[in-house]
């Protein structure tokens, strides 16, 4: 295991999907003439048309990009409903029930991020992985980041093995890697901690390739996740691919990820110029525990004043 070892980074992919859309919104005609005037408030169905049909007529007509990206569509996870391609995933939505009215609750939904990835593909005419590489990863120097299992395995880098812990027999068993599903925009990135350090530096310093407006939008809260949860103070919010909260008096942005046994966590505190990315290859809370420990050490918080994350 080295800083160049590859891991699936799970739902941290969502922030890249939001970042990609911010580029298109900044210059809607830069990559495709198929659609112009794109904004965060653009109805998804106006772009995906016959593909994006929901189980409610009003929702079909009114759900916007920012609704889909901030988990306020009224759709629950529906994880058991799966498809092989992004388009098939989008077309599944018409058959799935909503749990609440749109814009009334935080309901985490990977399929909506799959839809947003597909929307990028429709507008640009490019595979989402190619779009990310050309417009996000290359400008940020992320040369050890991939969007398919085959590309990662042929990269020459080591892809970490996955292990499941059996508490009955008290041993770890290896789990085979799974190719990406039709929800690529939600969690298909394979990367290294070194590349994520580059990404977090860009996001923390609000530098290119995102514009200042793009940085502001992806971190502006659109939804409430929960009223309070330790070790944070006050409510946890959700922006576009990022959670926001106050940690030890500092505005903090973070997201976690999970793909089979791969677990990841990324956290940044811009005011303190510190960001942390932790990846593991076994189903454990270690990434969150380690990331917060590093932050507490950096902030000089006494050990007896730190919340015990193992309580959760």
UniProtKB/TrEMBL annotation:
Xref: Pfam families: Beta-lactamase
Domain Beta-lactamase-related, residue spans: 1-291
InterPro entries xrefs: AmpC-like, Beta-lactam-related, Beta-lactam/transpept-like
Protein name: UPF0303 protein
Annotated source species: Colletotrichum spaethianum
Organism phylogeny: Eukaryota, Fungi, Dikarya, Ascomycota, Pezizomycotina
Family the entry assigns: Belongs to the peptidase S12 family.
